[in-house]
Amino acid sequence: MSQEKTRIPLCVSHEAHHEIIDRIELPDDEHFFELAEFFSVIGDSTRIKILYLLFEGEMCVCDISEKLSMSMSAISHQLRVLKNSRLVKYRKEGKSVLYSLDDDHVKTIINMGVDHINE
Q1: What count of Cα atoms within 13 Å lies in the side-chain half-sphere of residue 91?
Q2: Are 110 and 52 in contact (CB under 8 A)?
Q3: 56: three-class secondary structure by DSSP
Q4: Helix, strand, coil shares of the chain as percentages rounded to 5?
Q5: SS3 of 10, please?
Q6: d(CA 92, CA 47)
């Protein structure tokens, strides 16, 4: 018994699509590379957990480490990745280093993702 392949029909009015295609201006490839890198950074569950913790305010490595039951070394590594991607910032207070979200955009992006998966 032979199986026929299903053919996908071509556009009926290919010309109509040129109107849309002609008005779209794509950013350069570097823009898309940076955007993909951004999503790969927040695509790690440990980093998402850290960002969630920082929604509540500044925290030091030892507090994040305790809350996530992970080593301070592992948390420091993840914070370095988040800092290099401008998702978190830090400030020194005496001998302590306190981390926080870099800006409100980070929380908005995470919350939009949560809204999307909860739909």
Answers
A1: 6
A2: yes
A3: coil
A4: 60, 10, 30
A5: coil
A6: 21
